[in-house]
Specification:
9 helices; elongated; hydrolase
C-alpha cells in the first residue's frame, strides 16, 4: 500500500490550514480573543454582495474552532486525492484550481441563497467546496482507478462521484447544512467539472486556439514567395561548372 506524496503546493496548503486553525483556536479558546476575530475572513453573504469578494478566497482556510474533524477532513481530502492532480498540473495551476474552485463554490452559495431563502446561510466557511472540486476532478481523470480512503476503503472514481453527489442531495433534503452551506458542495462539484482536465471550457479554448492557428497557417501559405533573391541584398548569380579558368572577378570566389 503506497502513500500519496503531496508536492510543495499541497503541503503548503495543508500546513496553512492546520496552522490557521491552531492559531485561531488558541486565540479564541485560550487567549480570550473574541470570535469576531474571524469575521474579516468569513463569507458573509451581505458583505460579499456589497463587494467584499476577497472573503471568497479566505473562507476556505477557516474551519470550525470547536470541531477539529472539520479541518482534518479537508486535510485528508487534499492528501488522498490532490497529489495526482498536482503531479500533472504543477504547483501554480493546483493552487489556482483550489482557490478558484472554493471561491466559485462560495459565490454560488451566496447567489442561490439570495434567490432561495430556504438555502440561504448568512455566514459560511470551510474547505468542503474545494474538496468536492478536487474529488470530481480526480474522479473524472481516474474513473476506473482506485484510491484507498483512510488507507482502508477502496474507492473508484465513479463510486466517489456517486457518493459525494448523493450525500449532498441528502443534506439538502434533510436541511442539514454544514458550515460551508447547502449549495457550496454543488458549486464545488461544478467547479471540478468546469476547471479540471475534462472541462468543456478548456475544450472550447483549445478548439478556438486550433482554429486561430489554422487561419494563421493558411495566411502564411497565401503569401507569394519572394522573387529576385533576398530583398535588399546582393543579387546572386549561378556560374556554370566545368570551367578551366575561374572568373577574374573576386566577387564570384564565394
Amino acid at each position: 500500500m503506497g502513500f500519496p506524496k503531496p508536492g510543495k503546493a499541497l503541503l503548503g496548503m495543508m500546513i496553512a490550514i492546520g496552522c490557521i486553525w491552531v492559531m485561531f483556536t488558541l486565540g479564541v479558546k485560550w487567549a480570550g480573543a473574541g470570535v469576531g476575530a474571524l469575521d474579516p475572513f468569513l463569507v458573509i453573504s451581505d458583505a460579499v454582495l456589497h463587494g467584499q469578494v476577497w472573503r471568497l478566497f479566505t473562507a476556505p482556510l477557516i474551519h470550525s474552532l470547536g470541531d477539529p474533524w472539520h479541518f482534518i477532513t479537508t486535510l485528508l481530502g487534499l492528501y488522498f486525492l490532490a497529489p495526482s492532480l498536482e503531479s500533472r498540473w504543477g504547483a501554480g495551476r493546483t493552487l489556482a484550481f483550489l482557490f478558484g474552485s472554493a471561491a466559485f463554490a462560495f459565490a454560488l452559495q451566496v447567489a442561490v441563497g439570495a434567490l432561495v431563502p430556504q438555502v440561504q446561510q448568512a455566514v459560511v466557511f470551510g474547505g468542503l467546496g474545494m474538496i468536492e472540486a478536487v474529488a470530481v476532478a480526480w474522479a473524472l481523470a481516474h474513473r476506473h482507478a482506485t484510491v484507498r480512503l483512510f488507507f482502508v476503503l477502496p474507492v473508484t472514481g465513479t463510486m466517489l462521484l456517486v457518493f459525494i453527489f448523493v450525500m449532498s442531495v441528502l443534506n439538502v433534503i434533510a436541511m442539514r447544512a454544514p458550515p460551508e452551506g447547502l449549495i457550496t458542495p454543488f458549486g464545488g462539484m461544478l467547479a471540478g467539472y468546469l476547471f479540471g482536465d475534462f472541462s468543456p471550457l478548456r475544450r472550447f479554448y483549445l478548439r478556438m486556439r486550433f482554429r486561430q492557428l489554422q487561419a494563421q497557417s493558411a495566411a502564411l501559405r497565401r503569401v507569394p514567395a519572394a522573387r529576385g533573391g533576398r530583398s535588399g541584398g546582393v543579387p546572386l548569380r549561378v556560374i556554370p561548372g566545368g570551367q578551366k579558368d575561374p572568373p577574374k572577378d573576386k566577387r564570384y570566389l564565394n
